[in-house]
Amino acid sequence: MAIEAVVFDMDGVLIDAKEWHYEALNRALGYFGYTISRADHLTTYDGLPTRRKLEMLSEERGLPRGLHGFLSELKQQYTVDQVYLKCRPMFVHEYTLSNLKARGYKLGLGSNSIRSTVELMMRKSNLIGYLDTMVSNEDVKRPKPHPDIYLKAAEQLGVAPERCLVVEDNQNGIRAAEAAGCHLLVVNSVLDVQLDRVLQAIRLAEGASA
Ligand SMILES: [Mg+2]
């Protein structure tokens, strides 16, 4: 079955923002004596929306729920600061996305981040013009690891999920893509997102389902 669309996760795939989110959340939590360790962030929290991370901290470590709204706003402001300081276009990504587009693939983004962060990061990295749709955690009821974000992206692209290749970097996103019935390319870092790797994954997916 032919692949017609490629849907990218954002953090850890198109934007190297793990560290930014980690630092921003810890800076906000620090006012109240809480921190998330690097190990916990990488194994458990990475790729989850801030509101889910705060919920987990309340369940597991007694963070008062009344602080969630304030902490979310503070964390968001720190994330925006980091984006303005550090987010830059990467030639390899512009090359990859523009080439896929020229080859006729529809391109989408599916992220557990909020809409304003998605739009800001895609603008600052010069990728927004290549994307036919962007789905944030505000566009669905259930974030990843539920399939909703990828199902919505496929729907907006007008492509069946099984004709989409999803590019993901972590467990929550992989589970979401699999549950949606999409094909998968798993990458370890933003540097792995290269045209030849994506084309190879497309050929593999087409062969696997032929
Ligand atoms: Mg990710």
Question: Can you walk me through this structure?
Answer:
This protein is α/β, with parallel strands linked by helices. It has 2 domains: 5-16 and 89-208, 3-Layer(aba) Sandwich (Rossmann fold), CATH 3.40.50.1000; 18-86. It contains 9 helices and 5 strands. The protein has helices spanning 18-30, 38-45, 50-61, 68-86, 91-102, 115-124, 148-157, 171-180, 195-208, and strands at 5-8, 106-110, 133-135, 164-168, 183-186. Helix 6 (115-124) links the parallel strand 2 (106-110) and strand 3. The N and C termini lie close together (5 Å). The model has no long low-confidence stretch (mean pLDDT 95). The chain binds magnesium ion. Magnesium ion binds at residues 9, 11-13, 47, 169-170, 173. The site of magnesium ion has 8 residues, from loops.
Tally of helical runs: 9
Largest sheet: 5 strands, parallel
Q: Could you say how many structural domains there are in total?
A: 2
Tell me the series of helices and strands, N- to C-terminal: EHHHHHEHEHEHEH
Ligand inventory: magnesium ion
Tell the overall outline: globular
Runs in which pLDDT lies below 50 for 5 or more consecutive residues are none
Helix content: 40-55%
Strand content: 5-15%
Distance between the termini: 5 Å
What structural class results from the helix and strand content?
A: alpha/beta
CATH superfamily of the largest domain: HAD superfamily/HAD-like
CATH architecture of the largest domain: 3-Layer(aba) Sandwich
Q: Roughly how many Å is the radius of gyration?
A: 17 Å
Class of the largest domain, according to the CATH hierarchy?
Answer: Alpha Beta
Q: Count the beta strands.
A: 5
CATH topology of the largest domain: Rossmann fold
Calculate the mean pLDDT score and round it. Answer: 95
